[in-house]
Amino acid sequence: MRLISREQRKLDHLKFALQSNQEVRSAFDDIQLVHRSLPEVNLSDCKLQTSLGGKELASPLLINAMTGGAYKTEEINYRLALVAKETGLSMAVGSQKAALNNPDLARTYQVIRQANPNGVVLANLSADSSIEEAKQAIAMIHADFLQLHLNVPQELVMPEGDRYFTGLMKKIQQIVSFSPVPVIVKEVGFGMCKETYEQLLSVGVKLIDVAGRGGTNFIWVENQRREGQEYHFLYRWGQSTVISLIEAQKFHPQMELISSGGIRNPLDMIKSFVLGAKVIGMASPILRSVQEEGVETTIQTIHRWHEQLRILMTMLGAKCLSELQRVPAVILGETREWCESRGLD
Ligand code: FNR
After folding, report:
1. Which atom of ligand 1 is nearest to the CA of 14?
2. Ramachandran area for residue 262 (φ above 0: left; ψ -120 to 50: alpha; else beta)
3. Cβ atoms of 19 and 289 closer than 8 Å
4. Which residue from 128, 167, 229, 345 lies 20 to 30 Å from 266 (Cα-Cα)?
């Protein structure tokens, strides 16, 4: 078996994430919002401010965790941070484990704080981390939040991946208790279910990024890094982002949700707010945009999304994002069947 260095793996992930296609049919298409002819709202009344873990955010959009940890990624993080600064987006770095092992790599993450000193930034580590590692990752970039990722399927399909998953809840509980900043637990594209939310709530987690199926697919990505297609039968493993949000319905308002995984456009974002999200995370679409279209075009795209979100809010009669939770939605197709089978309203 050929063992691959962590640095090479980071570069492989970037390369294949850019090639990865989203599912042709998105579960967001199963959600239909009910049009109103008399919304009684003006465009100028509609505001995009939100909050997460008590922190006010100028934009509800987040550039989700991707990279850092290989020298070539410093430039990518710099470009993403410029976009975040100009548009008011929050931004997460990729897993910082590489810099904990080799402090020389810390600069590939710190670049985002240097480029955007006043921005909201999120540290990122595996949930399988110690309190000390969590504190170091937060301090490394003066983070406002810490993301802990859960990626069991990805680890298992990676030949060099982890094989031990006991004790994660205890580790999460300890980090939540001792972290100097709010902790977000996130998936990486396989989504979550009510049983997982119950487990996370029981160890004190209140901020959750559902990171559902439908966008970047790490089983597909890992399959491209090896010969043969040993795991192609798992390409539809996990819960879609829409189903992950619906599975969380009974836990509002104890939990605050980030919707991510396969978000394609402002309509998907609005549907996420209707289903209870407070923040929207996007990873590969923003990476693809900065790498293929450039920083300036990406900034223009995000300004356009902000305006289109406000247009959609006007159409739906919602002056603020939380009012969107009152908008009636019809659930169709496979998502409806899932809800019926799981006894979800
Ligand atoms: C990721 N993602 C990720 N997540 C995480 O918590 N830590 C990480 O280090 C990484 N690394 C990473 C690298 C690359 C190249 C991509 C594209 C993604 C997962 C990411 O944050 C997100 O959960 C998924 O990509 C789903 O969102 P999109 O890409 O469908 O918008």
Report:
1. 15
2. left
3. no
4. 345
Residue nearest to ligand 1 atom 14, measured at CA: 66
Q: Tokens 């019926």 map to which residue?
A: 340
Instruction: Compute the C-alpha angle 289/291/293, nearest 5°.
Output: 50
Crossing angle between the packed helical segments 73-87 and 295-316, to the nearest 10 degrees: 40
Contacts of 253 (CB under 8 A, 6+ apart): none
pLDDT band at 21 (very low <50, low <70, confident <90, very high): low
For every residue of the chain, which 3-state class applies, written as one string? CCCCCHHHHHHHHHHHHHHCCCCCCCHHHHEEECCCCCCCCCHHHCCCCEEECCEEECCCEEECCCCCCCCCHHHHHHHHHHHHHHHCCEEECCCCHHHHHCHHHHHHHHHHHHHCCCCCEEEEEECCCCHHHHHHHHHHHCCCEEEEECCHHHHHHCCCCCCCCCCHHHHHHHHHHHCCCCEEEECCCCCCCHHHHHHHHHCCCCEEECCCECCCCHHHHHHHCCCCCCCHHHCCCCCEHHHHHHHCHHHCCCCEEEEECCCCCHHHHHHHHHCCCCEEEECHHHHHHHHHCCHHHHHHHHHHHHHHHHHHHHHHCCCCHHHHHHCCEEECHHHHHHHHHHCCC
140-181, pLDDT tens digit by residue?
A: 999 999 999 999 999 999 988 999 999 999 999 999 999 999
Report how far ligand 1's centroid is from the alpha carbon of 203 (Å): 24
Examine the predicted complex and report whether its ipTM is higher than 0.85.
yes
Atom 26 in ligand 1: which residue has the minimum CA distance? 261
Instruction: Decide: 259 in ligand 1 pocket, CB within 6 A.
Output: no
Ligand 1 site, residue 26, Cβ cutoff 6 A:
no
Amino acid at 218: F
**pLDDT tens-digit map of 218-256:** 999 988 887 767 899 999 999 999 999 999 999 999 999
Give the separation between CA 133 and CA 251, rounded to whole angstroms: 30
